[in-house]
Amino acid sequence: MTDSTHITVLLNEAVEALLIDQDGFYVDGTFGRGGHSRLLLQKLSPEGRLLGIDKDHEAVAAAKENFAGDPRFQMVRGSFAELADRVAECGMTGKVSGLLLDLGVSSPQLDQAERGFSFLADGPLDMRMDQSRGESAADWINRADEADIVRVLKEYGEERFARRMARAVLAEREQEPIVRTARLAEIIKVANPAWEKGKHPATRAFQAIRIFINNELGDLEAVLQQALEVLAPGGRLVVISFHSLEDRVVKRFIRRQEKGDPVPKGVPIRDEQLNKRMRSCGKAIKAGAEEIAANTRARSAIMRVAEKL
């Protein structure tokens, strides 16, 4: 089940930022095809341990095939929004040396038309990272009212023409339910009056629907809060984002933890009383020209690192 099409983004940078203790306990909250996990295991001592988490059954299958022989590694299927529970089951609450989150959709998910993530290949309109539960994109797009579709496209895709697109969807589904990616992409394309150079006119809409269907931003908010609970003092949080909405959530979270508890204006308080929980480790890191040339999906990647105090 090894997938040669998947190229791990910011591989060395992420593992270098994450690894503070070769004997430590680490969590890869978005296992994918195991690129980061593989390198991390190479650098861990025989005492080190790694917990992998992923919603996708294919990711879990890949983990079992490629990592089953390593006693330091454990894989669980589920959302990283369940991080605190999974870490507690390992008896490691407050003892995690590092947590890695590589957000968004993986290359294998995008490249498999049957998963329904891509507007470039026709397939069932699904978009669920965990296909065993929840509502598919087709289920939603065929029942949602105009206001819901507009809200999703604006909020999660920052789509300027959300209302035009929503009205086009409603008109088309009256003729026949929308169940294929190619049909939805064509509807969105026709409804989009201003195509961006070098970008498919359905890009933002597909991104928005995928984020909504998988509750990606809600899960991200949840896991960031739980990171404070599971990380050991000095433990690292490493997050790789692929669009501005994700990165904004991560950036604001780290900034809030650096500032500590809010204090009413004019109230005298010592710095140590602010309950600061984290510190940012350097500036945001982006992929270099060489990596982007080898993997165009790396061009939008941005990595932030923070350390629990």
Task: Output the helix-strand order.
Answer: HEHEHEHEHHHHHHHEHEEHE
CATH A-level architecture of the largest domain: 3-Layer(aba) Sandwich
Distance between the amino and carboxyl termini: 40 Å
C-alpha-based Rg, rounded: 21 Å
Overall SS class = alpha/beta
Largest sheet: 8 strands, mixed
Say which CATH homologous superfamily of the largest domain is assigned: Vaccinia Virus protein VP39
Q: How many domains is the backbone divided into?
A: 2
Helix content: 40-55%
Structural features, described:
With about 300 residues, the protein is of the alpha/beta class. The protein folds into two domains: about 10-105 and about 215-309, Vaccinia Virus protein VP39 (Rossmann fold, 3-Layer(aba) Sandwich), CATH 3.40.50.150; about 130-215, Putative methyltransferase TM0872, insert domain (DNA polymerase, domain 1, Orthogonal Bundle), CATH 1.10.150.170. It contains 13 helices and eight strands. The protein has helices at about 10-20, 35-45, 55-65, 85-90, 105-110, 135-140, 145-155, 160-175, 180-190, 205-215, 215-230, 245-260, 290-295; strands at about 25-30, 50-55, 75, 95-100, 230-240, 280, 285, 300-309. Strands 1, 2, 3, 4, 5, 6, 7 and 8 form an eight-stranded mixed beta sheet that branches. The longest helix is centred in the C-terminal third of the chain and has 16 residues, at about 245-260. The radius of gyration is 21 Å and the shape is globular.
